[in-house]
Each structure stands twice: as structure tokens, then as C-alpha cells.
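2024-03-11 09:14:02 DEBUG pipeline.ingest accepted 1 chain
2024-03-11 09:14:02 DEBUG pipeline.ingest length=232
2024-03-11 09:14:03 DEBUG pipeline.predict start
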Amino acid sequence: MAGLDKRVSSYQEALEGLTDNMTVLAGGFGLCGIPENLINEVRRRGVQGLTVVSNNCGVDGFGLGLLLENRQIRKIIASYVGENALFEQQAISGELEVELTPQGSLAEKIRAGGAGIPAFFTATGYGTQVAAGKEVREFNGRHYILEPAITGDFAIIKGWKADHYGNVVYRHTAQNFNPLMATAGRITVVEVEEIVAPGELDPAAIHTPGIYVDRLIQGTFEKRIEQRTLRF
């Protein structure tokens, strides 16, 4: 699968062009499959007023929680926010704007954005606060609300392996939101554990084709676990 070499040599280069008030799509589920080094670079750059779209907002002191500590996030669009005490404080004080979205709807909003679909109807959320201010229609005797798609200025993605052309493979649960978000960013940046030579990846195993990827970098990862559960 021939194409342009997407590799960059530094995290500074990977996020070149990221500025204040942009929308950033951040892959991951909990702490699984999060682009932790790219998040660290967002923090280092000090950009402010960000709208972040993610399943959740990390934990205190790690992942997107670092951007909360640095007061860089203005608004978060997420489906789960229960692991971060600082998030709770900022939300209650009004410092942080929060748009809670049902998880399936969030995934579909991102998928639709990547597919060029501006909005879609879903029954999820009808009759709740999620539906407030949204168009409602009836289809076959059931009510549906109109949900707008989501796209971003940047999508920051964590993969397992990629080739020089940006064809990406994710490992197990790390597929979560990463493949969807990779399609919905105006600039998609992927960090992976290993970059292999062209031709080493099985074409049938590729989850994100390189056409969606703008920049690619290899990193090392801490891979924290949110809650360790032991069974005896």
C-alpha cells in the first residue's frame, strides 16, 4: 500500500499547528489506548481554551487529567467522567463546560463526522435532558432526536503498530474510540509502539488506512491501570 511517508521525528513536529481554542479528539477508553505522549505535548505547548472530545477525561495526574490541572480545557464532550476529582471540582464551579453524551451516541457522532454525515436521528436520549433543544421526529411510531456529527481540528490517536505510510493496527481494547476518531480529525496524529517497514503489515489486519493519517511517531508508554482488580 504505497503512499507518503507519514513519520515525524519529534512530538513538537507531531502537533505543529495546534493553537488555542481548537477542538481535539482524544482516543482511548479509561486509560486504555490513550495517546499519553501526545497529551503530554499538548500540555507542554500550553495551548488554552480547548474543546476536548473523549470517552472520559483521564484521572488525576495522568492522561487528559494533566490538561485539567493546567487549565487548558474549556469544554469536554464525553460519556463518562467518574474517575477525576479535579474534573468534578471544575465542573461544579462552572470553570469547565461539560457536554455529557450517551456512549453509543458519542461513538456514532464521531463516526458520522468522519464519514461526512452532518447529523443523524437516534432514539437514545429521547425524553431526557440529552434531548433538550434538539429536533425530534417520529419514525414508525417511535420518537428520535437529531444528533449533530463531531469533527475536530486535531485527532490524537494511540495505535499498536504502523508502517511508514500511516497504516495502523490497534491491539485489543485499544481499538475503542481510536479508529473512529482517526477519521474525524482535520489533522490526525498517531503515536504507536512500533513502526514497521512497508509490506510487513497484513493488509487485511489494518484498522486505520494511512489515507486518514497525517503524522506518525513512535513512542514509549507507561500504560497505567485505572483500577486493579484481583480475584482469589
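2024-03-11 09:14:41 DEBUG pipeline.report The chain has one domain: 11-118+150-218.
2024-03-11 09:14:41 DEBUG pipeline.predict end
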